[in-house]
Amino acid sequence: MKYRGIIFDLDGVLCSTDEYHYRAWLALAQKLGIPFSREDNARQRGVSRMESLEILLEKSPRSYTDAEKQELADYKNRLYVQSLQNMTEADLSEEVRSTLKQLRKKGILLAVGSSSKNTPLILRRIGLAGFFDAVSDGNGITHSKPHPEVFLKAAAMLGLAPQDCLVVEDAYSGIEAGVAGGFDTAAVGFARSHPKADYALTCFADLLQIAEG
Ligand code: B16
Ligand code: MG
């Protein structure tokens, strides 16, 4: 096996919560009268909630205190968490579910590496609570992607060195975090155009061949 472990990003890789993030940030931007585009949203992928808020506030004509910023982030998160209640096990695609099972059968250790503090909730909603060998998320890190901390923690939890693990990401910041941590990286969706990704996946099941080397 080329890799002993695979570390998956959550939003945009294992499931599609990215549209819920977009709608919640858009609602906040509209409430504040700040323009907010899909391009702004793309820059928020993989980065923490507070850093995402800073991206949204770049176009604000006024500044906000730290306490106000916390309230704005809480407002967005309430909207986002409300929309997560719509998620069910049907939001985990059959392809992702069966690929994960086949990777495990090959003896590869599987982990999550996500910037999201809502990771435990999302994993419960899509029926993956307790499935992974390790979960490293926004609740256990001080630096979010593109810093490699979340992936380095995941690898340490698996008991593996970064060079033995593959990171699967949909965000530019996530590919950069993987590269900075010394991991090989596989890009899906939005990140496929990142020049530093080792693999650009055409579908999730491509991982089965990549893992073999
Ligand atoms: P939360 P990932 C990231 O998750 C999202 O891509 C990013 O848009 C979000 O701001 C971040 O989680 C924090 O999420 O507000 O739920 O803590 O892609 O790293 O799985
Ligand atoms: Mg992501």
Structure summarized in a few sentences:
This protein is of the alpha/beta class. The protein has helices at 18-32, 38-44, 49-57, 66-84, 94-105, 119-125, 149-158, 172-180, 206-212; strands at 5-8, 109-113, 134-136, 165-169, 184-187, 199-200.
Structure report:
Helices cover 45% and strands 11% of the residues. The chain is α/β, with parallel strands linked by helices. It folds into two domains: 5-16 and 90-212, 3-Layer(aba) Sandwich (Rossmann fold); 18-84, DNA polymerase, domain 1 (Orthogonal Bundle), CATH 1.10.150.240. It has a six-stranded parallel sheet with strand order 3-2-1-4-5-6, with helices on both faces. Helix 6 links the parallel strand 2 (109-113) and strand 3 (134-136). The longest helix has 19 residues, at 66-84. The N and C termini lie close together (6 Å). The model has no long low-confidence stretch (mean pLDDT 97). The structure holds 1,6-di-O-phosphono-beta-D-glucopyranose and magnesium ion. 1,6-di-O-phosphono-beta-D-glucopyranose binds next to helix 3.
